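seq:
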Amino acid sequence: MPWDWQVDQLIYIIFGEVRVLPAEATTSDEFMHFVADDLVLYPKWFETDLHFNGLYEEHNRFLAYGEDN
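struct:
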């Protein structure tokens, strides 16, 4: 699933897993892998393809520009 963010996004993965392949990656081996209990920060303007393996649930928070928490 192609995705991009206009603001910082903080993600807590409840269950499942996701592979994140940044748009600037030159090979499919340059992915990041996140699983349940991981806390992930996607920075503003981050462009990526998300690949989910089975069921997946997350809590997210979109951080306004300049917001610290």
